[in-house]
Request: fold
Amino acid sequence: MTTTKRRRSNYPLGLLALRTVAAWGVALLLFFPLGWLFLTAFKTELQAIAVPPQLFFIPTLENFHEVQERSDYLLYAKNSVITSVVSTLVGLMLAAPAAYAMAFFKGKYTKDILMWMLSTKMMPAVGALVPIYVLAQKSHLLDTQLALIIVFALSNLPIMVWMLYSHFKDIPREILEAARMDGATLWQEVRLVLLPLGMGGLASTGLLCLVLSWNEAFWSLNLSAAKAGTLATLIASYSSPEGLFWAKLSAASLMAIAPIVVFGWFSQKQLVQGLTFGAVK
Amino acid sequence: MNRRLLPRLLLTPAMATLFLWMIVPLVMTIYFSLIRYNLMQPDQTGFAGLENFEYFVTDPSFGTAVVNTILLLGSVILITVVFGIAIALLINEPFAGRGIVRVLLISPFFVMPTVNALMWKNMMMNPIYGVLAQVWMFFGAQPVDWLTDHPLFSVIVMVSWQWLPFATLIFMTALQSMNHEQLEASRMDGANYLQQLRYLYVPHLARSVAVVVMIELIFLLSIFAEIYTTTGGGPGDASTNVTFLIFKQALLNFDAGVASAGALFAVLLANIAAVFLIRMVGKNLDK
Reply:
């Protein structure tokens, strides 16, 4: 047996080189479309459709000016920020108490409630399209930020409850009980014990919902237009085949995704852990 | 405060809003599906019986849409799970620049579907100026008009590109909790990499596969933006899924009645999937 014995430290160098090259190759290949989008945003329209494609060129900021002039990027960006941030906060305020109740006061029906909540998320958004559209129209909420905030918060709610539940469940009950024994009121228990311990969970849940709302396209496309439209709808307006304006399209796209992509880079670990519902450690 | 009352009080807001969010549209959808309700023909009203259902189900696009939905779902889940595991295994050991590779790999997940779709449609898949066409030409092949000739495949590529990072990172997280002593022991017993893969890695990943499948199912059943901004469901119905078909009935044909009938069908489809999956995953998450 001793002959086959190998330790980690003498992991063959050739294999490591191969792994490094392969990993970088895959990563660059998958990132390529985004990198290309980034480059195209700084090209002129002619350079953007040059054959063969140009890798080296003098960058221009022209496209960014034109996007702002043509379609008021800032208005859409503002709508995106407001709808995603507010809907996330509303969602957290609804989800956190529910998750707390289920995690620390487990009852006979807790599991069924959780399953039921998740099952509402399985109902495809399109199933509610006509009624929600009619309701929004009747209550004059079509093309308002409020309509999008309500819809985003509610459609993310099941996932938020699940994520928070799985995070809270990992907090030892004994700590909370000890606080209660020491005469802490509910508010003190929440503020001094639960919030500090559950911060990670709240943060990753909030982050994920921010990303989901920012990128949400189905409801924004169907419920909002020129007034409350989010960046997702702004970009969709570039899909009409009115010639090849790739440089401008790229600039607009880059402006739409840059905030959330950079945000995602910094919070990726939290995000991924959150998304697994605590099932994958 | 009463220990029985408190949890109920805390649960009520979330449950009540969620219940309304589910039941109000559902009841309205059922009602609309039974009446004549076309926004373009306001004079036609009244009880329609099952006409709307009949119209939706006998629509020649219907069968295609169901098949497309299942194909799209199945392909994307298969691609992301298989490649996700492969990439996760690849970057599981330390190497130079691992942090940057991670950042590059996860990026597509944060890209909004409309940007994703337009980027692939134009810069990548355009048959003349697109990067893929250039690559094809470089190798002396005839460039492919992806969106016209392989519309569903194109949509699958876009959606897979978006969801592969998610799967990869879940699997990566799972791999990090592998028992290293067990791996070491198997190595000492002379197990080769393939055997380790078969008996240690894959069983360890079973649970994360369940998570990936469940979450992707939730989000992929209603793929919309990628189709809306690229192929518009076409050519013909070649890339129309059930979601897009209902959208067409509702907002392009203005027929709320037929769209509602279709929506009920979509709900049914989703529930069939949900019953199997949530049960399976629910058990898995319980441990």
Remarks:
- The two ends of chain A are 34 Å apart (CA to CA).
- Chain A has a mean pLDDT of 83.
- The longest helix of chain A spans residues 73-104.
- Chain A has two domains: 2-63, 64-275.
